[in-house]
Amino acid sequence: MVASATTCKLTLLTAKTLSPKFSFNFPVNKQVRTLKQASFSYLPFRVRASSQAASAATEATKVIPSEMKAWVYGEYGGVDVLKFDENVSVPEVKEDQVLIKVVAAALNPVDAKRRQGKFKATDSPLPTVPGYDVAGVVVKVGSQVKEFKEGDEVYGDVNEKALEGPKQFGSLAEYTAVEEKLLALKPKNLDFVQAASLPLAIETAYEGLERTGFSAGKSIIVLNGSGGVGSLVIQLAKQVFGAAKVAATSGTRNLELLKSLGADLAIDYTKENFEDLPEKFDVVYDAIGQCDKAVKVVKEGGAVVALTGAVTPPGFRFVVTSNGAVLKKLNPYLESGKVKPVIDPKGLFPFSQVAEAFSYIETNRASGKVVIHPIP
């Protein structure tokens, strides 16, 4: 169903599964501490050295411990509620799950909103290990798993529906248990950092385009085209769906990024008002929360996908239900290089700096994704 020109479709940043509730083993009076900061740098699109693959290949032969290191929070609030715990029980593996030794994990805006308690009515019980996106190595498989085996390098989003009973055990830990249907083999040309940056964002981007009936020959404008989702919408619209024209907005510093991703028209929102453009678009993909302005540039019979903010009546909401099938479908585009992950130049944080990574993503200034790596 395609919305009218005055309709905003609100795509919630969601992902994957209503999972069984895992019991945590947080021993009373165990020491909880925050690790020291470290410094690093990372370049977008750069495939990292093969040391990742070499070290990951040994994970399948290691003995799985009973306890692991993880970031947890036992109450809702700011970044100060995040604590590092060295004695969290490794999750049990259900028959349809695999246990992943996490190599890299990415943060999304929904991680912060969940920690702040904005979805507490449908959240899993506290305490929680946060994190949706994961890339790592399969170290154990459930009895009903058919597609994956120990040693496989996989990536995916650990939750089927991010706002409805997301897992207690997320990806910001040494190990996480994930349903087979939510995963795909990691693209061979991507390292774990790049793969971890993709699942929730690329599934949201793809689902939003599909919901609008986007197809070859149509036009689209992406608001906040330099963000984690927007940067992938540009590429998918052009490379997968065959868009005739892609326009996108960003600040001055990211205009060249938009062009490199395939935008035909890069708009500096600090100097131009996109709503004043003379042309209209078949689809407006609002990844910034400007639905009231977005409806002004959509064609009659077109559609607006909004990720955040108020919905202009008679808008309606829908939830993206993600799974590994979407990742498998898009893997050829990733392996060919037609679609590339975008990681913020300052967006690689070590496991010791998860709190700092959350603080950075909550500035809303990241270009592309924020990723946690290495994870012990």
Automatic annotation (TrEMBL):
<feature type="domain" description="Enoyl reductase (ER)">
    <location>
        <begin position="77"/>
        <end position="372"/>
    </location>
</feature>
<dbReference type="InterPro" id="IPR044626">
    <property type="entry name" value="AOR-like"/>
</dbReference>
<keyword id="KW-0560">Oxidoreductase</keyword>
<dbReference type="Pfam" id="PF13602">
    <property type="entry name" value="ADH_zinc_N_2"/>
</dbReference>
<dbReference type="InterPro" id="IPR020843">
    <property type="entry name" value="ER"/>
</dbReference>
<dbReference type="InterPro" id="IPR036291">
    <property type="entry name" value="NAD(P)-bd_dom_sf"/>
</dbReference>
<dbReference type="Pfam" id="PF08240">
    <property type="entry name" value="ADH_N"/>
</dbReference>
<dbReference type="InterPro" id="IPR013154">
    <property type="entry name" value="ADH-like_N"/>
</dbReference>
<protein>
    <recommendedName>
        <fullName>Enoyl reductase (ER) domain-containing protein</fullName>
    </recommendedName>
</protein>
<dbReference type="InterPro" id="IPR011032">
    <property type="entry name" value="GroES-like_sf"/>
</dbReference>
<dbReference type="GO" id="GO:0016628">
    <property type="term" value="F:oxidoreductase activity, acting on the CH-CH group of donors, NAD or NADP as acceptor"/>
</dbReference>
<comment type="similarity">
    <text>Belongs to the zinc-containing alcohol dehydrogenase family. Quinone oxidoreductase subfamily.</text>
</comment>
